[in-house]
Write a structure and sequence with these properties.
Blueprint: H1 13-33, H2 43-53, H3 56-61, H4 64-88
Helix pairs in contact: 1-2, 1-4, 2-4
Length: about 90
C-alpha cells in the first residue's frame, strides 16, 4: 500500500488566481499566434492547459481541484462582468 503525504503548504487563493489569470492569458495568446480554432473545449482541457503553464512551485502547493475551482470562479466573474456591461450599455439608435 502506497501512502501519499498531503502537502501542508496553504495556497494563497488571490495569488493562485493571479497565476491562473496569467496562464490563461498566455494560453489565449499562444492559440491566437498559432491560428488555432478553439471550439467545444472541455473544462478538463482548459484546466490541463492552465496547469501546464503554472510555475512548478505553484503546482507543488496547489491541487488540480483548486486550480479548477479558481478557473471556474474567474470564468463566472468575467461572465457576470460582461453581462453587466451589456445591460448598462445604451441601445444603439438606427
Amino acid at each position: 500500500m502506497v501512502s501519499i503525504a498531503r502537502q501542508t503548504d496553504v495556497v494563497d487563493r488571490a495569488q493562485l488566481r493571479s497565476w491562473i489569470e496569467d496562464a490563461l492569458a498566455r494560453h489565449d495568446r499562444d492559440v491566437r499566434e498559432r491560428d488555432e480554432l478553439v471550439a467545444n473545449v472541455t473544462a478538463a482541457e482548459i484546466v490541463d492547459a492552465v496547469w501546464g503553464r503554472l510555475p512548478l512551485a505553484v503546482r507543488r502547493k496547489a491541487t488540480r481541484a483548486e486550480v479548477q475551482a479558481s478557473v471556474t470562479m474567474l470564468t463566472l466573474r468575467r461572465g457576470i462582468a460582461m453581462m453587466r456591461n451589456d445591460v448598462e450599455a445604451p441601445a444603439a439608435i438606427e
